[in-house]
Design goal:
Strand content: 15-25%
Distance between the termini: 85 Å
Shape: elongated
Number of helices: 23
Structural class: alpha+beta
Number of strands: 14
Helix content: 40-55%
């Protein structure tokens, strides 16, 4: 049973550790009210309460968390996050409440905590985020794109609990998520907004993702917004069977508002037979006397008219009280849903079905869903579903250098070069990591029967720092010179020569922001004479040839620029080479 620590009226305990490591008697913090944040929390008092979070006594940890929450003490966030998995439930709860009170500063850590493998701390993180409320929504909407699926699942659920309209676009976009649980949690959250979710959900009925269209049509089965009727009628012509029947079911639940347009479909000579069949099924389920009367008249008139379609199976004179359905599938052991309710696994005999229309859905891992609207009229009925295999492909990830860690959708898969076959055709985020190198991130789309390849050109953290500085200040000759030296030491001659040439180009334009062109001259002189060890077993003639070619090419583009002439004259005097002439 979860116990809740009572908020004390006047006493909050601060904890210190004795010399022997045992919990000492806690000093009182001066009678601060426990339901109000102090006007100011000194560094000394903050340190005391942070230390108290490590107390061996659960009550003291809980009290310290309570006070730090009231003080909105952002420095306490890391320890409070760890306390979400505290052995004591009171301490867990007080840490949860405290994180909720701290608010925005706790958001990044709380969102990361949604990926905890243990359910209890993950639930506490969700609870703290819900307490933060609307202030958490922008960060949560962004987290709907998080690479870790557990985070996206929690966020899709949470946004429905917070119910701030700022999340509607993000939730609607999540209907196309590659993970089924994320999609349906987002769809469920959208239903909690009622008609306010209609505009964004209607857009998803035309989404390129079939999963998004299925979810969007299902949302309207719950919200029953009449404003969606025209779009749902359009969705009954979708290429996907499940989208069609999700839309038809929504229209049937909405009821009378959709009847006029459905009758127009039945009376249209241009409407396709399957669309008319769906329209008729929707109308059959609308409990309105006038609708049923008009439908009966249309059916009577249709029966009297000649039809090119094969005659349907004649219904029995008297409908049975119940129908027994024998359901088989190829392959077997498929999960069966009848009218959106789980009923078992194939092969299956299901009894006591009411006669009439039923929506049948079968699912099986690594196979596409099978759906069908059936009319069961006889005491014994049989169905066999053939499930198509889900499209697969191959993923290949390589890196330079190799033996880097590969993460697919946030989950570790192995080291480069990495190959995985029989992967669901879908979009995947790829992350490649190696010690002393910057993380590489990318995305691949696996097409059915094809191989998707990703190659990570890893950049060392030092090289990355140079590139980052040059992004902010591209005319920094000193930075380009340092980078060229780094490449030469690493044996990356081509990169080093390009960096030297780029620095020379900046000098040619008189744009150097570092005012240290002398360092560039010195680096060219030292590289030309191989005055320092270079990597990759580079010999001196190869270094000289690459540098000469790179600087000469820069000269050819800038022959009229006086700063370059002056600089190359200095280089000629230093190494006795004329870089205005092509290399020999």
């Amino acid at each position: 049973m979860i116990r809740f620590w009572p908020v004390l009226a006047a006493v909050v305990v601060s904890v210190g550790l004795g010399a022997a490591g045992e919990d000492a008697e806690a000093p009182k913090p001066g009678g601060e009210p426990a339901d109000k944040a102090p006007a100011e929390l000194s560094a000394e008092r903050l340190a005391e309460f942070l230390q108290a979070l490590d107390s061996k006594t659960p009550e003291q940890r809980a009290r310290a968390a309570t006070f730090l929450g009231l003080a909105k003490a952002a420095p306490a966030v890391p320890k409070l996050i760890r306390m979400l998995d505290d052995p004591d439930q009171d301490a867990q709860w007080q840490a949860t409440v405290a994180l909720g009170k701290i608010g925005k500063p706790a958001l990044p850590s709380l969102i990361d905590a949604l990926d905890q493998p243990k359910e209890a701390p993950r639930w506490k993180a969700e609870n703290a985020l819900e307490k933060i409320g609307a202030d958490a929504v922008p960060a949560l909407v962004e987290a709907l794109k998080h690479e870790r699926v557990r985070v996206r699942q929690s966020v899709a659920y949470l946004l429905g609990e917070i119910k701030d309209e700022a999340c509607l676009e993000g939730l609607a976009a999540a209907l196309a998520d590659k993970d089924e649980a994320v999609r349906w949690k987002a769809a469920t959250s959208l239903t909690k907004f009622g008609a306010k979710a209609t505009p964004v959900t209607i857009k998803r009925l035309d989404d390129p993702s079939v999963d998004a269209r299925r979810c969007a049509a299902w949302v309207f089965q719950q919200t029953l917004d009449t404003a969606a009727v025209p779009s749902l009628v359009g969705a009954m012509s979708d290429a996907d069977e499940q989208v069609k029947w999700n839309a038809a079911t929504a229209l049937q639940k909405i009821g009378l508002s959709g009847a006029p347009v459905l009758f127009r479909i039945l009376g249209s000579a241009d409407a396709k037979p399957d669309l008319k069949h769906m329209a008729e099924w929707v109308l059959e389920g609308i409990k309105d006397e006038d609708v049923q009367k008009r439908l009966a008249e249309l059916k009577k008139g249709s029966a009297a008219s000649p039809s090119k379609d094969p005659p349907p199976k004649a219904p029995p004179a008297v409908l049975p009280k119940s129908v027994t359905l024998t359901m088989n599938s190829e392959p077997d052991k498929a999960t069966v849903f009848i009218d959106d309710k789980y009923v078992g696994v194939t092969p299956l005999v299901f009894r006591e079905l009411g006669p009439g229309h039923h929506f049948i859905k079968l699912t099986k891992r690594d196979h596409m869903p099978w759906t069908k609207l059936v009319e069961l009229l006889y005491p014994e009925e049989k169905l066999t579903a053939k499930l198509a295999p889900r499209p697969k492909g191959t993923l290949f990830v390589d890196s330079v250098p190799p033996q880097a860690d590969v993460y697919v959708d946030g989950e570790y898969e192995g080291k480069t070069p990495f190959e995985k076959k029989n992967v669901d055709a879908n979009r995947y985020s790829i992350r490649v990591e190696k010690e002393q190198f910057q993380t590489w991130e990318g995305e691949v789309v696996i097409q059915p029967g094809q191989e998707a390849r990703a190659k990570a050109e890893l950049v060392t953290k030092l090289e990355g720092s140079y590139l980052s500085r040059l992004k902010d200040d591209p005319n920094n000759v000193a930075c380009r010179t340092d980078m060229a030296h780094y490449y030469m030491v690493q044996g990356q001659l081509e990169k080093s020569a390009k960096a030297i040439a780029a620095a020379v180009e900046v000098v040619a334009n008189g744009a150097d922001t570092s005012a240290q062109a002398g360092r560039l001259l010195q680096e060219i002189q030292r590289a030309w004479t191989k005055a320092y060890p270079v990597g990759g077993n580079l010999d001196l003639p190869a270094v000289q040839k690459a540098l000469h070619a790179a600087i000469y090419e820069t000269w050819q583009r800038n022959t009229e620029k006086a700063p370059l002439r002056a600089f190359l004259d200095q280089v000629r005097k230093a190494v006795d080479v004329d870089f205005t002439q092509p290399p020999k």
